[in-house]
Specification:
The complex is a heterodimer.
Chain A (H helix, E strand, L loop, with lengths): L2 H6 L24 E5 L9 H5 L5 E3 L5 E3 L9 H5 L5 E5 L5
Chain B lengths: L17 H12 L3 E5 L3 H6 L11 E3 L5 H15 L4 E7 H7 L1 H10 L3 E7 L25 E2 L2 E2 L8 H7 L4 E6 L3 H13 L4 E6 L3 H4 L6 H10 L6 E4 L2 E5 L9 H4 L6 H4 L3 H18 L4
Parallel strand pairs in B: 1-2, 1-3, 3-4, 4-8, 7-8
Antiparallel strand pairs in B: 5-6, 7-9, 9-10
The chains are: A alpha+beta, B alpha/beta.
Bound molecules: thiamine diphosphate, iron/sulfur cluster (SF4) (3 copies) and magnesium ion.
Chain lengths: 96, 289
Amino acid sequence: MNKAKRNDIRLIPGGITRPKTTITNKTGFWRTFIPIFNEERCNKCGICDIFCPENCIIINEEGYRHPNYDFCKGCGICAEECPKDAIKMILESKEG
Amino acid sequence: MSSQLFAPGHTACSGCGMPIAIKLILEGSGKDIIVVSPTGCLEVTTTRYPTSAWGVPWIHSLFENAAAVASGIERALKVLNRDANVIVIAGDGATVDIGIGALSGMFERGDNVTYICYDNEAYMNTGVQRCSSTPYGASTTTSPVGKLSFGEDRPKKDLPAIAVAHGVPYVATASIGYPKDVIRKIKRAKEIVGPKYIHILTPCPTGWRFDENKTIEIAKLAVETGLFPIYEIEGGTLIKVKKIKNRKPVEEYLRLQGRYRHILKGFKDQLEIIQEIADKNAEKFGLDG
Ligand SMILES: Cc1ncc(C[n+]2csc(CCOP(=O)(O)OP(=O)(O)O)c2C)c(N)n1
Ligand code: SF4
Ligand code: SF4
Ligand code: SF4
Ligand SMILES: [Mg+2]
């Protein structure tokens, strides 16, 4: 390779993507069982939130937690770890 | 504690322990970081082109050179006079097998990088092949149980000890079953200049074959049986150990996992050997109490 050509070499940046763009992928359709959160039993401890692998549990105005069902895969970790037994896993009926 | 730095929509299996570790790491590290990840489940499930789950700068290395890429970034930041913590988050195969040469170089040069291994105890992304972090007795697709085999026949490689032998100033192990402990260790690593090594156990429902809601229970049982001791070593000295009251027999951990099912169904000698591994850990780290 001659000198001129070598100087033409540019670093190719590779694949660059925008941050937090996986939100276009609605993983909720993976779900078989759906977690239902019972505010009456909840003590707002946040354990469900810490352990949710989907990072999809959100806090409402009253401070209670609920999953964003667009992303919840229905793993059941929240229900298993909730110290107040405030989360029930129910077989989800889906249309279509 | 939902992380603002990590988005849903990633494609890790339902119940995967690895994204739980990522949330905890980001909680401890804050936003001023650059993450390097080699090939593996983390990379494949969080950066499906053209999307990314990351809310912090993140770069993919090759499978074998995450530590070298991190060292390069750290040097570049120095030259540019810019401040950010460089963190590697890598699978166990990438760390204990193929990337160990680059990692040893990073340790030896004393580069200011936090290297975190999320340990799911096999090459999961490619279909559950054993690696040197796979524990004794576990059945994988390349250490399958059969007439002539009880599964993996070698003990788990002790990478934290190898890090300590390099004179790494901060070495810690952790389990996602204890989230506050994980966050605290990430924060502690931030305060130390030089290489840091943190090894986090992240159970994998697909490869270990357990019910996807049992991830945290299993992450705790690994510690409660003594099979995965959690501790901190600073400047070569053991400074903190998670003590276990009434250490549980290893069966309680093995029973929940398909990769060990055969052990409880007749491999008595192997069961004894696994219990001995836990007992030796307890003695070495003073776990009981
Ligand atoms: C040089 C090289 N060899 C093999 C592979 C194929 N490969 C990709 S990921 C992977 C296993 C990753 O295992 P680990 O680091 O433990 O991460 P995990 O997938 O278990 O999270 C392998 C073998 C590769 N990408 N590059
Ligand atoms: S773990 Fe249970 S009690 Fe705690 S915040 Fe979640 S639902 Fe409420
Ligand atoms: S079932 Fe799993 S994914 Fe859904 S909210 Fe609970 S922990 Fe999150
Ligand atoms: S194979 Fe295991 S580590 Fe990989 S995404 Fe699935 S559960 Fe997680
Ligand atoms: Mg692995």
